Structure to design on (429 residues):
């Protein structure tokens, strides 16, 4: 979502004459768009600003803006702590960036703009063309979250759930497809909670996109198990462009820990969703997120997570040890033994990586469908992805960026497939 936001910040600032530069030392305005999900996010922002400050030690200072979730969480504290920062702008206020810059140029007063004005934001963004022209494009359809998992900062930094108007999303998709996008990834912190006017749901958007001739692939992320309703599950049966790979975070395999996390689902419910999906579409594969060492996690709880992983056999997952986020209920709990947590994480990651390796091995000497996303720098090689998001490096100069091709897989490692393309005809979707 930050990539989507960063592109839109660029689209906005370009309307008042700004252009991108790779040369930091030449910048007149520096926007650091931040994410608060990862550990020590705030300190990393100050470190980055410190590095940037050094470049301008003997030069005229550029306008320095911190946007995104760290700006939201830290607010005016950032300007007090680091005077090199001129503005902080929250993720729901960045549509105002052009006015704020023009005002700053007149008044030279520091700015803290961290209101939740999400409706106004998307109304403004709709009027500014989305300049992404990539094969794979993102569209934010939903923001914020009402679930309040005890470890997560999103409800505090992105605010309550908001869904964009159905037609606004469809118009943005049509515009991107006209510019050459072949794959659309619908984004939201809780994307499957999308609901507009009690009439349109995520399944409505998917079904509409599925009917667009020049679009080849549809994905969405990130979903909550509680919002995997039957109408959405049925899209995996009816919509051939919806890729059979679902990212569905479970976080833990222990009901005791899931309750303590306030996840609002237990492992039995999670299994029931996976069973429904697999019944409806045999091709479907699942990826997930895991938190290891959540406060109160015993050896037994951890082993239940391992059992769940072995039963489901995830294709690709993200796993971390618990680290507290300031302001969340879990931050007040006592963290368990750090050494033990590191050992547990290693054990879990070994199992997850082994699943990835076994899965990739299955493709050896077989043809897989790949959407070619770009040509690799200075090489006669291309980069693309399978239906399951697995990166593929392919050789051949017959294919074109944006083609859907059948690639023969010649070798693999845990993360990537390597293959050759020997057919000029596009693969069937
Ligand atoms: S559902 Fe996701 S975004 Fe919402 S609070 Fe939980 S982890 Fe955070």
């Amino acid at each position: 979502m930050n990539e989507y936001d960063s592109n839109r910040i660029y689209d906005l600032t370009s309307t008042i004459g700004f252009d991108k530069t790779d040369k930091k030392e030449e910048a007149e305005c520096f926007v650091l768009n931040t994410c608060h999900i990862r550990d020590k996010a705030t300190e990393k922002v100050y470190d980055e600003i410190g590095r940037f400050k050094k470049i301008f030690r003997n030069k005229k200072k550029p306008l320095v803006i911190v946007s995104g979730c760290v700006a939201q969480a830290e607010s005016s504290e950032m300007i007090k702590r680091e005077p090199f920062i001129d503005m902080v702008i929250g993720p729901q206020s960045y549509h105002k960036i052009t006015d704020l810059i023009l005002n700053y140029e007149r008044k030279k007063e520091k700015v803290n703009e961290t209101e939740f004005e999400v409706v106004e934001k998307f109304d403004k963004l709709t009027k500014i063309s989305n300049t992404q022209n990539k094969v794979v494009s993102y569209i934010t359809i939903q923001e914020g979250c009402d679930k309040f998992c005890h470890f997560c900062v999103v409800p505090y930094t992105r605010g309550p759930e908001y869904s964009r108007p159905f037609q606004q999303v469809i118009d943005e998709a049509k515009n991107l497809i006209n510019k050459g996008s072949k794959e659309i990834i619908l984004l939201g912190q809780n994307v499957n909670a999308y609901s507009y006017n009690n009439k349109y749901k995520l399944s409505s958007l998917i079904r509409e996109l599925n009917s667009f001739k020049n679009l080849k692939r549809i994905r969405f992320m990130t979903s909550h198990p509680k919002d995997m309703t039957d109408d959405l599950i049925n899209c995996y049966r009816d919509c051939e462009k919806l890729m059979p790979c679902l990212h569905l975070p479970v976080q833990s395999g222990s009901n005791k820990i899931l309750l303590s996390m306030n996840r609002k689902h237990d492992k039995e419910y999670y299994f029931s969703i996976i069973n429904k999906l697999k019944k409806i579409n045999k091709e479907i594969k699942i990826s997930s997120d895991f938190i290891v060492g959540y406060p109160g996690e015993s050896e037994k709880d951890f082993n239940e997570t391992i059992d769940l992983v072995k039963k489901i056999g995830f294709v690709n997952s993200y796993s971390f040890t618990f680290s507290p986020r300031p302001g969340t209920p879990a931050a007040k709990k006592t963290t368990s033994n750090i050494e033990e947590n590191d050992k547990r994480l290693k054990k879990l990651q070994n199992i997850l990586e082994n699943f990835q390796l076994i899965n990739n091995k299955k493709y050896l000497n077989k043809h897989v469908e790949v959407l070619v996303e770009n040509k690799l720098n200075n090489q006669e090689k291309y980069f693309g992805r399978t239906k399951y998001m697995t990166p593929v490096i392919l050789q051949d100069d017959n294919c074109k960026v944006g083609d859907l091709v059948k690639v023969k897989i010649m070798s693999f490692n845990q993360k990537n497939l390597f293959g050759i393309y020997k057919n000029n005809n596009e693969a069937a979707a």
